[in-house]
Amino acid sequence: MKGFAFSLARDAYLREDIDGFHLISRHPPKMLRVNRSLFQLLNHIQTGGELAGFHELNPGLDRARVLRTLLSLVAKDYLKLETIAELVSYPAVSIIVPVHNQPGDLRECLASLQNLDYPRNRREIIVVDDGSREELSPEFSSPNIRVIRQAEPGGPAAARNTGAAGASGEIFAFLDADCVAGKSWLRELVPFFQAAGLGAAGGYIEGYRRRTLLDRYESAASPLNMGNRLRLEGKTVSTFYVPTANMLVTRECFMSTDGFNSRRRLGEDVDFCWRLRQLGYSLLYIPAGSVAHKHRNRPGEMLRRRFQYGTSEASLYRAHCAKKKTFVFPVFAGLSFLALAMAILLLNPYPLAAMPLLFLADLWHRSAASRKIKTSLAFMPLAGSAFRTHFSFIYFACFHLVRYYLVLIIGLGFLWYPFWFFGGLAVIDTSAVDYRVKKPELLYPVFLFFYILEHLAYQLGVLLGCVRAGYFGSYRLAFRSSGF
Fold this sequence. Notes:
Blueprint: E1 5-8, E2 12-17, E3 20-25, E4 30-34, H1 36-46, H2 51-57, H3 63-75, E5 79-83, E6 93-99, H4 103-114, E7 123-130, E8 145-150, H5 156-165, E9 171-175, E10 179-181, H6 185-189, E11 198-202, E12 205-207, H7 213-221, E13 231-233, E14 246-250, H8 251-256, H9 268-278, E15 282-285, E16 291-293, H10 299-311, H11 313-319, E17 325-329, H12 331-346, H13 354-372, H14 379-413, H15 418-438, H16 444-469, E18 477-481
Parallel strand pairs: 6-7, 6-9, 7-8, 11-15, 12-16, 17-18
Antiparallel strand pairs: 1-5, 2-3, 3-4, 9-14, 10-16, 11-14, 13-15
């Protein structure tokens, strides 16, 4: 049976010296001090050894804690996850599918669940009919599919709670009725629950349709698509969550959090993830265990949904006051962005003169940092690292402005027209980067059209939600200097 396999990231290496044991990344220059036991494990991994083999040589180690530590190093880009473990024993899983007036979608969803490569005797399927206009036909019931009907629609959160109340599994696997599960959905996600303290995990969500232009946009740019990087968060102020369209939760974690907030019709997955993390559980996202989601394929429906998502922000941030949008502010890159913004808004090129000086200062700082961790880097790698930081900061700053303030920027343009140049450049910068990264099957002008509409709809929803709630915590930022 294959176990979890890891390797060191491309720019990471180990060093042992008089100061102790270190795991070092060249790009960006950073160093993590580790204990002897972890250093030995990482050295074992570096030489091609498997995790299972290390445990055989060191039987006293806590396997669950070791796995969580390694996953955290993957999330920090020190390690790369190469192989997901094959299960030796299979935990009982209860698959919970809420449905409301979607018999066609449900039929296809259930067909995909029957095709899973997870043992049938270790899984059950619970369909919760959330007050559909017509009661589900008997065809949806079978020996391993149980249908629970709620007489009145209570919303997806209440339906999931109803399903969980009747579930017998050790793990609850939540799936939306308009999703089609991949054959290895559970087999790829369940093994991660061997990690210590893991309360919930989410997998990759791809688009189901690719027929229309909007289908192709949603397939690449849907907010349900959490990307290709593994993430692991515990009790921190970050806003990280995973959608319930593809979420697995341990029974213990679900009961400890009292389930989903049934009063929420939107953002109930965000609220649930934030609460479980506040209780000390870890939340994991893995770009594996894929399901295909049938996104809304009409422009009006898509924009209405984005608007609705936006309206939920105010109540979420009011209920979780400790949560903030944390903005990492690399000093030199941040000052360069401010110089660029001033040059555009003042229609004056002189502030641009500060940018090369700030870049040189950044290079000097990075060189000093690499010497501090006793890592000698050539000029070109240092310069490349600095360029990436500066351009990345411009992207993230512009993205936040486009996401939340594009309407305001357009309005300010009527008072001072350079704001239109500034807003236009911000939109082009963020959309071009996202187009390159997400690789939609669309021409760029088509992608840009949907991109602008989506952001406008979302930020109008955020504004309306804040006005209705009388709370503007959605606009509160926390800045954290990265030192570079």
